[in-house]
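help with this record:
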Amino acid sequence: MSVEPTRLSSNEYQKLISERMTPATAASYLKEQRVVLRTFVEMLKEFYPAGDILPRLIAAFMESDPDANAESVSRRVRNWLSGKNRPTSQKYIFQIAFAL
């Protein structure tokens, strides 16, 4: 299965090959983190720019599991949106997608 690169990935790839970087120069470029990487939060807000993302996600998670601890769900979603961590399970990713 072929995976198409995103526009940003493609731009970075073109930059690496167009400047005829040596492997050492390319490694240095990557180590210095000059590559533009989007965070989970940036991607989430790009796909769902409305301002109600926090309450929407909390409500969706609570609806899917009414027995869940509301404070725990709220903390988890706040941590995702603050960039402290990101969803680690496929289940959470799907729940986020359906919520939005």
Summary: Residues 70-82 form the longest helix (13 residues). The radius of gyration is 18 Å. The chain has a mean pLDDT of 85.
